[in-house]
Amino acid sequence: MDFYQIIKKPMITEKGTKQKEQANQYIFEIDRAANKVMVRNAVEKIFKVKVLSVAVMNMRGKRVRSGKNIGKKSDWKKAIVRLAPGQKIEFFEGM
């Protein structure tokens, strides 16, 4: 699997911004088939940083309703990546 297929998109949220500032952790939406080792290698190669730890979570899709119709959003997977002290991902800066 290609590194750019493993990491789908960064999650820029209020909680994620707080984690970035306090604990040097970044949150990404990742491919459902990816594991911790694959995420670590992808982040290190794409952003050229040193990764200390990776936490991976399966997130359930929420139920949605539009009028009478009830549906469900897709399930997805996220990773919280902790970087070494002094390391940054420039993509997140200035958001």
Number of strands: 6
CATH topology: Alpha-Beta Plaits
Please indicate the percent range of residues in DSSP E strands (runs of 2 or more). 35-45%
Order of strands across the main sheet: 1-2-6-3
Q: How many separate domains make up the residues?
A: 1
Helix content: 25-40%
CATH A-level architecture: 2-Layer Sandwich
Distance between the termini: 29 Å
Radius of gyration: 15 Å
Task: Give a short overview.
The protein contains three helices and six strands, in the order αβαβαββββ. The protein has 95 residues and is an alpha+beta fold. It has one domain: RRM (RNA recognition motif) domain (Alpha-Beta Plaits, 2-Layer Sandwich), CATH 3.30.70.330.
Summarize the SSE layout with pairings.
Layout: H1 3-6, E1 7-10, H2 14-23, E2 25-30, H3 36-47, E3 51-59, E4 63-66, E5 69-72, E6 76-83
Antiparallel strand pairs: 1-2, 2-6, 3-6, 4-5
Description:
This protein has three helices and six strands; from the N terminus they run H-E-H-E-H-E-E-E-E. With 95 residues, the chain is of the alpha+beta class. The protein has a single domain (3-85), classed as Alpha-Beta Plaits. The longest helix is centred in the middle third of the chain and has 12 residues, at 36-47.
Features:
95 residues; alpha+beta; Alpha-Beta Plaits; four-stranded antiparallel sheet
